[in-house]
Design goal:
Layout (H helix, E strand, L loop, with lengths): L1 H4 L6 H11 L8 E2 L2 H7 L2 E6 L9 H10 L3 H4 L3 E4 L3 H13 L3 E6 L4 H9 L3 E5 L3 H15 L2 E2 L6 H17 L5 E5 L4 H13 L4 E7 L4 H8 L21 H10 L2 E5 L1 H15 L5 H11 L9 E6 L14
Parallel strand pairs: 2-10, 3-4, 3-6, 4-5, 7-8, 7-10, 8-9
Antiparallel strand pairs: 1-2
Helix pairs in contact: 2-9, 2-10, 4-6, 4-9, 6-7, 9-10, 10-12, 13-14
Cofactor: Ca(2+); pyridoxal 5'-phosphate; Mg(2+); Mn(2+)
Keywords: Lyase, Magnesium, Pyridoxal phosphate
Organism: Fodinibius halophilus
């Protein structure tokens, strides 16, 4: 634990200042709700719809802040990252808007829709094995060849500060929430969300959610020891990564609980939202919805915000079709 204690967690003041820097560059996304969804949830749910964000995901917030904070010297050879999709798109667009090159490592099992979008933003893609080790080894080679600055998908304070802006906007519109619930992959969104809520609404409980088959954050939270993800075999492709020491430290300090859901629960919740709310959500952001729908979180008489993290789906590979 001594290593974690030495980590500097971003403060609420830093998070607030980051939001002021990027708010004119990102969409202020809508907060939506549904009577039918509330009936099933047993309480009031408010969806912060980052599926309507630029690049179709919250990741644009963090990437915009991180790329914007680079010095001209750091940015001169462009930026590089590894990502299964949404962070890749976000870095590609943020780099394009700054006028610098983007070099993106994507796992070979990344959704086609996300690969195509990264290409459309003008980035150079290099494919890797789908394991964390494969991604990191390929990225190291790309950085050595290009001299690009690595923008980590979540183990980066500037990324976390940018991701926090979604929760700031949510709490500005709905200041009296009992819970904020979000999915956990690498933990960047959950870290930023929890820091923002601790400053704006300390009484709001922060709940993380995760696929049962990729439950590294749940295990880490329960044991107070960082566990790497053991399986990437989840339909929630955005949640296949492990926490970092930085995001784990943020979660330990600010998050109240983490719950897991099954693959079928994720798919069922996703389909319900598509059918009843008429919005496209990815499997990753169906995870917190599934936790509510399946009684993991008791919402009777409560009000909860859920960060809908993205809407980038391969429409030829919908999970309920096969």
């Amino acid at each position: 634990m001594s290593e974690l204690n030495a980590i500097t967690i971003p403060t609420y003041e830093e998070v607030k200042n980051a939001y002021l820097k990027i708010r004119d560059k990102v969409h202020r996304t809508p907060v939506l709700n549904s009577k039918k969804v509330n009936e099933r949830a047993g309480g009031e749910l408010f969806f912060k719809c980052e599926n309507f964000q630029k690049v179709g995901a919250f990741k644009f917030r963090g990437a915009t802040h991180a790329v914007g904070e680079l010095s001209d010297e750091e940015a001169q050879n462009g930026v590089a990252t590894h990502s299964s999709g949404n962070h890749a798109q976000a870095v590609a667009l943020a780099a394009k808007l700054r006028g610098i090159a983007a070099h993106i490592v994507m796992p070979e099992n990344a959704p086609k829709v996300k690969v195509n979008a990264v290409r459309d933003y003008g980035a150079t893609i290099t494919f890797s094995e789908s394991t964390q080790e494969g991604r990191e080894a390929t990225l190291k080679k790309v950085v050595e060849e290009t001299g690009a600055t690595f923008i980590h998908p979540y183990d980066n304070p500037h990324i976390i500060m940018g991701q926090a802006s979604a929760a700031i906007e949510l709490l500005e519109e709905k200041p009296d929430l009992d819970y904020i619930i979000a999915p956990i992959g690498g933990g960047g969104l959950m870290s930023g969300t929890s820091i923002a809520a601790s400053g704006l609404s300390p009484e709001t409980k922060i709940i993380g959610t995760e696929p049962e088959v990729a439950n590294d954050a749940y295990l880490s939270f329960k044991t107070s020891e960082l566990h790497p993800v053991q399986s990437t075999d989840t339909v929630a492709d955005g949640l296949r990564t492990s926490l970092s020491p930085l995001t784990f430290a943020c979660i330990q300090e600010h998050v109240d609980a983490i719950y897991t859901v099954t693959e079928q629960e994720i798919i069922d919740a996703m389909r319900f939202i598509w059918e009843r709310m008429k919005i496209i959500i990815e499997p990753s952001c169906a995870v917190p919805v599934a936790a509510v729908f399946n009684g993991k979180i008791d919402l009777q008489g409560k009000r909860a915000g859920i960060i809908i993290t993205g809407g980038n789906m391969d429409l030829d590979q919908l999970p309920w079709q096969g």
